Amino acid sequence: MAGKNEEVLKEAFMTKRSQNKRSFTPTNWKERWFVLSPENLIYYDGDRQSGRRKERGRVELSRVVAVECVNSLVFQRDFVFQLCYLSEEKEQYVLYIAAVNGPERDQWLDYLRRLVADNDCLSEWYHEGAFIRNQWSCCKGGKDVAACTAVTWTINHNNNPPGKSQTLPPHLSTLSPSDLQQVGGERVAFRVFCLWLWDLKRSHLFVSLVD
After folding, report:
1. What stretch of H or E contains 177?
2. For residues 90-118, b (16+ Cβ closer than 10 Å) or e, as one string?
3. Which of 3, 46, 74, 85 could lock onto 53 through a cystine, CB 3.0 to 4.6 A?
4. 6 Cβ contact list (under 8 Å, min separation 6)
5. pLDDT interval class at 69 (50, 70, 90)
6. For 1-101, where are the E strands, in sequence order?
7. 92 beta partners
8. What is the pTM of this model?
């Protein structure tokens, strides 16, 4: 259960992917009972019949750097989203969670994004794939490679949060828009190119240009 003094904003059974924080930990998916409070996302074991639950982990929302959807092709699962966050040692981890349907996933995304909107650690970049077989599926980089994809959501939902400039990550900063097509696919290049145009012209992009 959430702490006695913690307000419960939302709770539901969802399926999470193991985070592989320890060596030789198998990668699998398990159903967990998720509880969202204003300060934490907590998950418990148990089942729908008994309701008995033991806390298995929690993420402090103040440490969250990104909240994004995951393409269904990455895990061959629908309605997956990711919570990228920092540990106390400033290591970055990703919690992958599969909701039961699209509307439920979108509601969790909305709650989480509102709660982390004021985080100083919010990132402008993330990996839209997953770290599988010692490489990121999106950009084929190693574990510590800089994130390759511009976030789809920020404080004001338009990739231009107040007080933050949109700059390319170091490993992409010297590439031309056409070269970026070789890093993570054409969709990544298109998003980065849009940000590049935004910084140059400070003008709005037509919705018709987005697929």
Report:
1. none
2. eebebbbbbbeeeeebeebbebbbebbee
3. 46
4. 37, 38, 39, 40
5. very high
6. 10-17, 29-36, 40-44, 55-60, 64-69, 80-86, 92-98
7. 86
8. 0.70
